[in-house]
Amino acid sequence: MARKHLEQFMSRLSRRDALRGLAGLVGAMSIEGCAQFLSSPSVATPTPHPRGSVLSSYRGHTSRVTTVAWSPNGTSIASGSLDQTVQVWAINPNARVHTTLYRGHAAGVQAVAWSPESDRVVSGSLDTTVQMWHAFTGERIALYQGHTTSVMTVAWSPDGLSIASGSADGTVCVWDVATSKQRYVNRDHTVSVNSIMWSPDSQRLASGSSDKTVHILDSATGTRLSTYRGHTGAVNSISWAPDGQHIVSGSSDRTAQVWNWSTGALLYRYQGYNVQAAEHDSTKGVLPDLILAVAWSPNGKRIAATTQVYCGDSCGVLISWDAYTEQHFSFGVDLPIFALAWSPDSTRLATSVVVSTQGSLATKTDGPYVQITQA
Fold it and tell me: N or C: lower Cβ tally within 10 Å for the chain?
């Protein structure tokens, strides 16, 4: 009954709002308590560290980290939090680079994205604004106002000329970077826009919504080119393949779907891994569940997704597989995962988690943090 109630609750909300509801279910757990990482036997490519190895952690936030983004040059991460800050910090914990703390928002930060040059960051917030600022001084460059409710997602175009934002008000706004003016508003979605993504050539814009659809827009005009209707639940996250032809979309309907944007043809539908074995032994596979985030690796080879699993409390599952064949699965059961991003070289993943233990069990490791793991 509890699971049914959770599914109904999360299907009505946007991805990050849904995650806030999920976090309320997290009980007593420790970092060591449920962390494990597993690979299907067919994974043969060696890595410097085993898949899932935690390489480093960042603990600068005081409340849940809702969004993470890796700088295109690979040196820094921007993380946004319900503590109303965005923090830019060095990947290398030994680097003598100070952390930039941006405090320009009046409410929790829901989304961040980097400029292609890795020198500016754009952030979207519950305060309804989109803000652009210098990544290493924290100086605000532009304030974009046009949404009427929370900004759930932001994306900077690969050509650097435009910023797109999606909101719980159901709109997609596109802003001109040079003039800071709004180029257009698209109102085709009926409810919250949870995820937005530019095509690699900046010619199209994809938006995923709680109305169960993904829209493909002409990025110059905002005209809708096509609609993908393969999901039966809210679309929480989307990611465009580097080939420019395929999109992966993750949904509250417990599927991640890979499809061709121009034809709408479905390549495959992920619905758990080794499910029959997982029903008896959680170390053998992953049961179908809400897909909270998806990300296509920059080299085009892998897709990563976050879902959840029952492990005495609610745990998160970070799972990845070969993008075009849906083979060579790796998965890890860990603490609830609230955000996901690939490194530009496709070797690491940044995720945000929360450790929450109760009463006298609380430890110095409790709290929100971002961890970098081997992909």
Answer: N
Instruction: For residue range 295-324, list pLDDT tens digits in order.
Output: 999 999 999 999 987 665 668 899 999 999
Amino acid (one-letter) located at 372: I
Instruction: Tell me what pLDDT residue 334 has.
Output: 73
Question: Which top CATH class is 2-357+367-374?
Answer: mainly beta
How many other β-carbons are positioned within 10 Å of the β-carbon of residue 254? 19
| C-alpha pair distances (Å), 305 with each of 91, 237, 367 | 22, 9, 23
Contacts with 62 (C-beta within 8 Å, 6 or more apart), sequence order: 81, 83, 367, 368
Total count of residues recorded for the chain:
375
pLDDT along the chain (375 residues), means of 10: 41 40 34 39 51 91 97 98 98 85 98 98 98 98 98 98 98 98 98 98 98 98 98 98 98 98 98 94 91 97 90 80 97 85 98 72 72 94
Q: Which run of H or of E encompasses 354?
A: strand 348-355
Q: Mapping DSSP to helix (H, G, I), strand (E, B) and coil, where does residue 109 land?
A: strand
- Domain definitions of the chain by residue range: 2-357+367-374
* Tally of CB atoms within 10 A around 113: 24
| CA 59/CA 67 separation, integer angstroms | 14
CA angle 228, 230, 233 (to 5 degrees): 110
Distance between CA atoms of residues 316 and 338, nearest Å: 9
